[in-house]
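Annex B, item 7. Sequence and structure tokens for protein A, then protein B.
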Amino acid sequence: QPVALADMCQKTKIVVYHNTCPICGRENDDAIEIPESLTEFMPGGNTKNLCDSCYEQKQQFEEFERQKRRREDFLQKADIPEDFLTWDKDKGDNQLARKVLDNADKSLFVCGRNAACKTRATAFNLKLQITKESRRCKFIRWSDLALGYARTCRMSSENSKGYIDEFLSYDVLLIDDIGKRRITETAGEMLYDMIDLVYSGAKKTKIWITSNKTLADFADAFENLDLGDAVVSRLDR
């Protein structure tokens, strides 16, 4: 619609609004130019506007609360066992936990004998990735991961890629305790595909693996030794 010339030339007036910040009580006057015909804006009586300082603090607090709720949601969905959400320096391997922390931005293969606190050191650091870095993380036992994949494949082989992609949507994926039992060919193929997608750069997830086997012995845990060698070659790189 064409704008009427009278509207373009409309006269204006200056209205002074007196404001008192409801938080700190600071007073200030704002001079605003409005069309002269506008009558619903009346000077004075405005107590809803915060001063610049209180407004900025309010924004910072609200953002802090949003991030806090976000981290709490991430932590709940990470499925980290409750026993590993706190650190006991007398119960855990402090040196190992520090090594994991220093290399938390990488994919990790953490190996050692049983009761070497591998899971505790990695799981607690996984929690720190959530609470300190606001990263989406997931803890899962290898047996549960492999069983879930086998069930998915039995239902529909087309869903196998979606199963892998779901776990590789996290920033950090901790696969706990691989190697206690023989790794079936199906599970081995899944593990190779996951590691290869990360190795190739197709996925940005950092994979943390704990195992009671050293990397040199890891291939022996696979039913298909050729597949085991392929997985180890990816891990070694």
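Protein B:
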Amino acid sequence: MSLLPDIALISQVLIFGNRRAFDALVRKYQASVRRLLLNLTAGDEALSDDLAQETFIKVYMALDTYKNRADFGTWLYRIAYNVFYDYIRSRKETCLMDEVSSEVEMAYNQAPTESSVTADINEAMRLLRPDERTCVTLHLMEDLTIDKIADITGMPEGTVKSHIARGKEKLVTYLKKNGYER
């Protein structure tokens, strides 16, 4: 993988139409974008793959709008976040992620290769409201700071902190009830 900074790769794509430069950006960020979406969809691999692909298509189409005001990764996560919430809105499911179609439930229950710990974490993540899940995922799993999460989600920093605190509390409660102790 190229060690060029993101802005150099973006410039190569925009100025020279260099698709390999965009491929380098995709390779650099695809695992983290997919992981984010996998957590937001409570473990639905097929859906998270589809949303990740849609994210990178949107990134490619909107690359000329990137103004380098924020880190490219933050901008990319914002697009992934919007793609996920566009999907939720299109499904008219803006309340709880628990209501995401029975397809997600079936895909989750039929995943034979998931370890029991991963399955329990995914189940615990389903208990969180979408905003809580987003903030917890970005903070704990993607190791982003509160201010970056606020940039990505458009929420005030205090709201992000509250979602993280409530989300962590729900996760701890669920996991303790299911035999996980510190």
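Comment on protein B: Residues 93-114 have pLDDT under 50 and may be disordered.
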